[in-house]
Amino acid sequence: MKCPTCSSKRTASVSLTDGLTAQKCENCDGQWIPHKNYEAWQKSLTEIQAEKPFTEVQFEVEDQTGARLCPDCGKILLKYKVGHGLNFFVDYCSACGGIWLDKNEWQALEAQNLHDELHRIFSTAWQKQIREENLAQTMESVFKKRFGEESYSKIKDIREWINEHPQKDQLLAFLTE
Ligand SMILES: [Zn+2]
Ligand SMILES: [Zn+2]
To answer: What Cα–Cα distance (Å) separates residue 82 from each residue in 23, 115, 169?
Structure first.
């Protein structure tokens, strides 16, 4: 394998977890998971393993920028944001399904228990959810700035209370009278 990040050819087979092998670049510590490896591992997973709780460990992740080519089929790798508390991108080959992880990304995914859901990160539904999460966070900071921390927290409580009230419509009508 030629490393898509640093072009090194010094690679070694490594076991990411039980039943999943990747090619690791010995120069930059990035890891390539061929689609067939990932698929076979997914099939072997049991429900019990998926129930593992989150751990609080943080990993330093060095996201590399720049275009990369798939080491298996030569197509351009696409970047997908992970989200859910992880602020980095995973590279994915939409042609052959291979996955590229930079140094420590696997460990970070594993700590958040997202490693066995890697394939879902590349789905439209996952990406849409992240955009909505980001938008909600942006709006929150906009309103905080506009109203001030204290008023914002107060108006948020009121909004919540109204939304859950059985006479919501009447309350709103009263407020805007
Ligand atoms: Zn490398
Ligand atoms: Zn490929």
So the answer is: 21, 11, 39
Spatial CA neighbour of 4 closest among 24, 16, 18: 24
Q: Is 59 exposed, middle or buried (0-12, 13-18, 19+ CB in 10 A)?
A: middle
Cα(77) to ligand 2 centroid in Å equals 7
Whether 69 and 156 share a structural domain = no
From the CA of 141, how far away is ligand 2's center (Å)? 39
CA of 19 to the centre of ligand 2 (A): 21
**Domain span at residue 37?**
11-122
Q: Name, in order, each residue with C-beta under 8 angstroms of 132's C-beta and a sequence gap of 6 or more.
A: none
Clarify whether residues 66 and 142 are in a common domain.
Answer: no
Question: Are the C-beta atoms of residues 108 and 59 closer than 8 Å to each other?
Answer: yes
Q: Please identify which residue in the block is written with the tokens 């938008």.
A: 135
Q: What is the pTM of this model?
A: 0.72
Residues 6+ apart with CB under 8 A from 123: none
For 14-23, what is the mean pLDDT? 95
